[in-house]
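User: Fold both of these, please.

Assistant: Here is the first one.
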Amino acid sequence: MDEYKKPLPTISDENRGFWDGAKRGKICMQKCGDCGHIRYPISHCCPKCLSLKFAWTDLSGRGSVYSYVVFHQLYNQAFKEDVPYNVAMVQLEEGPRMFSNVVGVDNDAVKVGDLVEAVFDAVTPEVTIPRFKLPSKA
């Protein structure tokens, strides 16, 4: 594995469930222990009922492109080889939205409403980044 030179997340006790899930090939988010709301971003309490109870739960990894943008401007030297690249807001089937990239297709092939499924990019031994791809055509 080549040395990964892009910014990496800081893994902490608060977000470890998410990153451990990604290493297992799963989108894993907090599920409220009282009302069942699946929340993201990670929080110490439920935004719906304010409960402090939660469990990390695996999600399907399926969703749709809610919005996206293609970056043509270089804002960080670490991404020089990637320009132009897309950043998509993905609406997960279970409710939360998250930012990531749609990979495996040209940027102009990504459209709002496209169905996507999670894929996982192990960039270091400690960090696996969730990304999304268009589902394979059967």
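And the second sequence with its predicted structure:
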Amino acid sequence: MAQIKGTNVSVGYEKRIVAGNINFEVNEGDYLYVIGENGSGKSTLMKCILGLEKTVSGSITFGDSLKQKEIGYLPQQSMIQRDFPTTVGEIVLSGCLNRLGWRPFFGKKEKEAAIEAMKKLEILDLEKRSYPELSGGQQQRVLLARALCATGKLLLLDEPAAGLDPYVQEQLYALIYKINKEDKITIIMVSHDIEAAKKYATHILHIGKEKSVFCTKREFIKENGACLF
């Protein structure tokens, strides 16, 4: 069974449908790019997957191998987040909150998971640094490490490379791809970067005003040609 399956999903605000009849399926190890114009409902769909918002209609179901609370989430970064006055290590460790259960404090396992996540994102040397002092690219690596602490199964990333220069973007994309391939963690990424989708995706969900299309990357390129690529 798929890790996540969307069937005839409609999303919107205050019951006003922004995008409808969305169908998709995400299996273990997939790398799904969710693309579409601004305001098409991409981020809203992500919040529905996380249970932060409800679908207007349709259903999003989870396979036996994945629970909603096991999804690592990297939302679009706000100015408040950029100025959050704490250390890199503290932010990454906070991603382990869902592991605590009834325990009031982080233990050895959580601290080891945070160290491992920082190693994967190549930011262990920044552990004691103040988060607001970091560059945009470094901050995104910190938040990605935090999301990684929350899951060993699926990462949901909403425009993680937005606002970064091309070189730093490519470094971040390469790290995410490495996590997908080496750690076998499924990736769902909302992005406007069509070239990155062409390079890294296994599947694409294009949410459009008239219709939404879900298919393999190869099928999508063949169908759309130069229109989007």
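The radius of gyration is 18 Å.
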